[in-house]
Amino acid sequence: MKRNKPFRVIGITGGVGAGKSVVLNYLKEKYPCEILVADDIGNEVKMPGGRCYEAFIELVGEDIVLEDGTIDRAKAAEKIFADDALLDEVNALIHPAVKDEVRERTAKAREECKVGFVFIEAALLIEAGYLPELDELWYVCAGESLRAKRLMEARGYSTERIEGIMEQQLTEEEFRKYAHRVIVNDGTIEELKEQIDNIMGDYLWQE
Asked: What CATH superfamily is the domain 1-32+116-207?
């Protein structure tokens, strides 16, 4: 089928607790788009029949397999994060597979012409080399104290865990350096939606 309207691949990134999921949920609810979340795809490729299932078990061990053939994610995570070398091997296996899956699903969406946008969300979107795959990058941001508050309330994270995660992520300046659009999520949900609508309105007007 021939596409008459522009097709855009847009990356969504930002620090932990910034509200990327809220942005994606609103986009999915209101606009003709497909949402690809790297973490979700990372879990899918380790499921029975997934492209990394057998190799993942071989790396981590048969003891992570449950009776129904699925992976005991808690047990697998415990083993992986206790062994830096194993963590590196798992990342080397999973990250390329996720990128391949994202690339294939994006190509399929482009070919089917059912949606005008594919949004790809990944905390490590920049570091993992997704930029060449994107037409544009959106950076969702909020102050560190607000993000920490959200993580404590929504996920029960400790201060130490939050600080550890934030230290491993890009700085505000680094995120902004690569971003085409910045969405500030430090106000109300209505204010956030208005920002998204304004950006999407620009695209739809161009069409």
From this structure: P-loop containing nucleotide triphosphate hydrolases (3.40.50.300)
